[in-house]
Amino acid sequence: MNEVVDYLFYATEGCHLCEVAEQLIAQVMTPRESIEYVEIAQSDALVAKYGLTIPVLQCVRTQQQLMWPFTAEQVQSLFTES
Fold it and tell me: Does the 13-81 domain belong in CATH 3.40.30.10?
């Protein structure tokens, strides 16, 4: 059975800002939200698209994105509006 993913978290390993953002997201995340980590380094297209803006949190349904820097309040707003 496939789990439905609500949000995509575009990041890359070893990125300090990505780690900070991941902790921030975890602070406001509830069991309702499902987030899939997307490693951009494995795709030239994703590096070209997000290389200068990661970390990025995207709602799958609405395609709305939060690009770093974002706050816990903005993440919470994305979760409640989506």
Answer: yes
pLDDT score recorded for residue 2:
52
**pLDDT (tens digit per residue) in 6-49:** 999 999 999 999 999 999 999 999 999 999 999 999 999 999 99
Ranges of beta strands (E only) in 1-82 are 7-11, 35-39, 56-59, 65-67
Largest pairwise CA distance in the chain: 35
What gap in Å lies between CA 78 and CA 21, rounded to an integer? 14
Q: Give the pTM.
A: 0.93
For the chain, the domains span 13-81
What are the distances in angstroms from CA 5 to CA 35, 59, 60? Answer: 6, 9, 7
